[in-house]
Write a structure and sequence with these properties.
This protein is mainly α. It contains ten helices and no strands. It is globular. The termini are far apart.
Length: about 210
């Protein structure tokens, strides 16, 4: 009987991740994954049984990767200002490393929200537990504008994510090289940090 080693399993998953990020679930075939892994299609099907089963494994891994460091930041015993700056920095580095990840997650959740939203619901629950109370305390003490997590996260994430979701469009429109785009993205990240923190946090005026 054919046997798959651990390294073969990881090779298939890495190949599947690469193909799913490029083509999405609907555009990917089992043959695409087998070719990317340089393996026989029967071998990939033997272990993972179906493209759907493999997709959900990959999606959970990528969603976990997306959320893990964010939640670690939220749990740190630091100020909310420091958390938001770290969050923007962390998201920036993650998207710079894997620019297709955000678009992939948004596209697939839009395609099949009923099956994929349970993963998102867990993130939402942890987000509220670790962040909402701290924001509420800052608002009550007059140090922060009145804003909910539901508005705060899209305000931060949308501003940063669009740079990478629209990377190819931006490079083409402005005839930018990879290095020029990276400089633009870094400057844009710093601008987002300034705009978010200067808007949200109320400076104390000296009488």
């Amino acid at each position: 009987m054919t046997c798959i080693t651990q390294s073969s399993e990881e090779k298939i998953k890495e190949a599947a991740k690469s193909v799913f990020l490029k083509k999405g679930y609907a555009g990917t075939t089992a043959r695409d994954i087998a070719e990317a892994a340089s393996m026989n299609i029967a071998l990939t099907n033997y272990y993972f049984r179906s493209k759907e089963k493999l997709f959900f494994e990959i999606f959970r891994d990528m969603f976990s990767y997306y959320c893990k460091n964010t939640l670690k930041i939220f749990e740190k015993p630091i100020s909310i200002r420091e958390k938001l700056i770290e969050l923007i920095e962390e998201d920036f580095q993650m998207m710079k490393k894997e620019p297709s990840l955000v678009l992939f997650l948004m596209t697939e959740i839009h395609r099949d929200p009923e099956r994929l939203l349970p993963e998102l619901s867990r993130f939402k629950e942890l987000l509220h537990v670790t962040l909402s109370n701290q924001i509420e305390e800052e608002i009550i003490n007059g140090r922060m504008r009145n804003i909910s997590v539901e508005h705060l996260m899209p305000l931060i994430m949308g501003s940063l994510q669009f740079v990478f979701v629209g990377k190819n469009m931006n490079m083409k429109m402005y005839n930018a090289s990879e290095d020029e785009f990276n400089t633009f993205a870094e400057n844009h990240k710093n601008l987002i940090i300034s705009m978010i923190t200067e808007y949200l946090f109320i400076s104390e005026t000296v009488s």
